[in-house]
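A note from the maintainers: we've had questions about how concatenated examples are separated. There is no special marker in the raw files; a new sequence line simply starts the next protein. For clarity in this README we add a label.
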Amino acid sequence: MAATPPTFFFKMKKSFADVPIEGGKIDTTEFLEAAECLVSLFDLLGSSAFSVVQMDMNGNIKKIRDRQLTNPIIFSTLQDIVLSEKVEKHKNATIGLLWLTRGLELTAVALRRNIESTEELSESFTKAYNETLIKYHSLVVRPVFKLAMRACPYRKDFYAKLGDNYEAVKEQLLVWLAGLEKIVKIIMDFFESGNYGKGL
C-alpha cells in the first residue's frame, strides 16, 4: 500500500478533526492549537491583505488562552470559560471565542464552496464573507475584509501550495473541514442556547 503523500494538513500540528469533544464540550488547549494551524493556512494565500484577518484571529486566540492560563484545570473546555465569564460579567475571552468562531465559519464556508465547485478562491471567499462575517462588521471594517477576500491567489496555485498530489490534498482537506464545521456548529449552538453572545 502506497504511503499517503504529505500535504499541509498531514503536516499540521493539530487538525480540528482531532480536537477532543466530551459531552459536547471542546478541549481548550487543542482547539487553540488547531486554530493557530488554521491561521497559518492564510500564509499560503500569499497576500499581505490577509494580515488583517490573521491579526484578528491571533488576537482572539490570545484572549482565550490568557483566560485559560489563569486556571488551566477549571478552564479546560471552551464552554467552561464562557460560563465562568457569564457569572463574573467579564467577557473578554467570550468575545474572543465568538469572533474567532465567526472567522472560522468564514473559512469553513469558503473552503467548502471552493472544494465542491470550480470557483476561484476570491469568489468563494467573497461569497462566504457576504454570507457570514459582513453582517457583524461596521462600514469601516467591511472594505478591509472585502479587499482581503479579493486578494486570494488563483485556485490552482493555492492547492499546489497545499501539496503536490491534488487528490491527497482534497481527501485530507475534507477530513479537516468536516472537523472544523462540526466544532463551529457546536460553539455557535452553545452561544445561541444561552444567549452568551447576545449583543457582542
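[label: protein 2]
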Amino acid sequence: MNTTSEATTGEVRLIAYLVPKPGKEEDLAAAIRDISADVLREPGCAAYIAHQSCERPGTIVMYEVWEDDAALDVHVASAPFQRLAGRFDELLGEPLKLERLQLLT
C-alpha cells in the first residue's frame, strides 16, 4: 500500500473507510479494537479513532492523525497494521479507501 505519492512534510490527517463483507461486521470491529491501543503507541501517531458509520452500519470509519508521512509509512509497515491487513481478504467487502484531509484555517 502506497500512502504517499511523493515525499512531503507536515501533519497527515486522513479518513480510512473499511467496508466489511456481509456477516463480518463484528469480526472487523474486533480486529480494529485489537490493534487500536498498539497503534496509538506508535511514534508519530496523534490520533487513531474508530467510528461506525450510521449510514452504512458495520462500516468502520477511522480518523487518523500522523506527525508526517514518515510516521504513516512506519504505521503501514508495523506489526499491528500488517496483522489487520493480512485479514483484509477475509474481512473486507470493498478495497480499503483512504482519504487525506486538509485542515481549514
